[in-house]
Amino acid sequence: MKIVTIVGARPQFIKAAAISRALRERRQAAGAAATVECIVHTGQHYDRNMSEVFFEEMDIPKPDYNLEIAGGSHGQMTGRMLEAVEAVLLQEKPDWLLIYGDTNSTLAGALAAAKLHIPVAHVEAGLRSFNMRMPEEVNRILADRVSTLLFCPTSTAVRNLQAEGVREGVHDVGDVMYDVSLFYRGLALERSTVLDALQLTEGHYVLATCHRAENTDDPLRLRGIVEALAVIARQVPVVLPLHPRTRKLLAEQGLIGALGAVKVIDPVSFLDMVRLEQSAQAIVTDSGGVQKEAYFFGVPCLTTRDETEWVETVEAGWNRLVGADAATIVGAYAGLQRPAARPLLYGDGHAADRILDLLEQQLRQDVSAVTA
User: Fold this and answer.
1) DSSP 141-167
2) pLDDT tens, residue by residue, 231-247
3) Order of strands across the sheet with 65-66?
4) Report field, pTM of the whole predicted structure over 0.70
5) Catalytic residue among 45, 122, 211, 243
6) What is the dihedral of CA 306, 73, 291, 143, to 10 degrees?
7) Is 211 among the residues known to form the active site?
8) Contact call for residues 211 and 238 (beta carbons, < 8 A)
């Protein structure tokens, strides 16, 4: 079996690490007969700290193709990726195209494969924010529609697809990000020196991230988040690894100075980010992946959005939707508490193996149907 994997943004590198590692383990056991993976990096995240270092640190095989496509509008980026991915698929002729999440890279890969009649398998299928103004929502819905296998991380995602009439090929496999967190959290404690480098004390700082277009492209929302972080930073250290695009927009809007005592740093490596997450007092973020990782590590989270795909974290009491109003964010931080229980919501840490089993099983069925 041959798989082409499409990645382009750092959350996808993290998710791909789990399946790539499981593939390598199977190859070592089975030899030449095992599944072959061809990794295609679209280049959507091009900063070294947001791309190359992830492959090195997480021991992901270097991409077989780097399309180096970044920048431009959503339409421009997706269109250029679609053309380039199509050329790769025509060259590689895979049995499966594997896509992750909800980025422009995800959508471009899905459309290119569907038009070439190459089966698509979507990891993290069925997520819904129910906000069609989010580019990610459009991407994930369209990707799901053209996928043959839909690998859902939760039962909620399965129900979302059922409500849309999608039932065939849907599997609740658990979350590959939980696989990753279990594997790397110990390594982060051993290897990362980021707390010392930033002069942070375990459990006595807040980690913040901000990159979603709904926040960065709205001056009022961006200002509200900045002002809230500045207020919190008067009480406890706040560290903000800043996405290059967010940094640019903050500078254009004259908001860098408004961050006050917030420790603004460049994007960090994967192990440093895991260390920062698991040792934080609290996390303030608009990232879907960081929301989940906060839950995995038992850290209360404030999500600066009006909705989330990860409703289970909110229902469990570990995550709170606070929007982008400064007073609301500050008030929510002041009232933060750690719930007594943290249910196992995202599987048992073996999602990657289930995904590979289902890909192999589906391919055998397809071959049998053709030869019958």
Assistant:
1) HHHHHT-SEEEESSHHHHHHHHHTT--
2) 999 999 999 999 888 99
3) 65-66, 36-41, 2-7, 96-100, 120-123, 149-152, 170-172
4) yes
5) 211
6) 100
7) yes
8) no
